[in-house]
Amino acid sequence: MKLDPVVAQIISAADFDNFTTNDVRNSYVALKVESGKDLAQIRRKMYAELLKLVNKGWLTKVISKTKKMTRFTKTKKFDADVIETTFIGSSVPTVSNQDDKQAILFSKLNHYRTDLLLNMGEAEAYKELYSEHPELVDELQPQYNTARDNNTKILGKIRAIEGLINKHNVIEQT
């Protein structure tokens, strides 16, 4: 089975579960920065990638009767280690020159962007759950606050790496 490495990176995140095709598409677009491509086309591609994992038994597809929305959840067969070594690569790059350093920074930046999108999705899910089940506010509020705090921390990491990348680009241009 061939799987897009960016999709593999997105879904292998530990806290990425119970997601929609649009969740994967949004993360994919943020990581790949595919400008000029039709979002519907990218969504269809993501759906096809997710169906591969459904057919393998690693994901289940659940269609909501009330909202007619399809969500995917990880099964017990789902193995993030296999996905990471098979599709993402498990080797740690060695830093031998400036281009390698830049590549590692961009890799970290993409990783943090994925984490940010995941946490944003988590916070949105807590809001949805609260609106559907207001009686759970006492249980959901601490989790929502944690997700929001994580967003702030991850955004700080993103800004730090972006600042470092911009600084290196300015140095190289002089």
Number of DSSP strand runs: 2
Q: What structural class results from the helix and strand content?
A: mainly alpha
Order of helices and strands: HHHEEHHH
| Approximate shape | globular
Instruction: Quickly count the helices.
Output: 6
Which spans have pLDDT < 50 for at least 5 consecutive residues? 90-96
Helix content: 55-70%
Gap from first CA to last CA = 47 Å
Question: What average pLDDT do the residues reach?
Answer: 80
Radius of gyration: 18 Å
Main sheet strand line-up: 1-2
Largest pleated sheet: 2 strands, antiparallel
Strand content: 5-15%
Characterize the structure shown.
- With 174 residues, this protein is mainly alpha-helical.
- The protein is 68% helix and 6% strand.
- The protein is built from six helices and two strands.
- It has helices at residues 5-11, 21-32, 39-56, 80-88, 98-132, 137-173; strands at 59-63, 70-74.
- The protein has a two-stranded antiparallel sheet with strand order 1-2.
- A hairpin with a 6-residue loop joins β1 and β2 (70-74).
- α2 (21-32) crosses α3.
- The longest helix is centred in the last third of the chain and has 37 residues, at 137-173.
- The protein is globular and about 50 Å long.
- 20% of the residues are buried.
- Mean pLDDT is 80; it is low at 90-96.
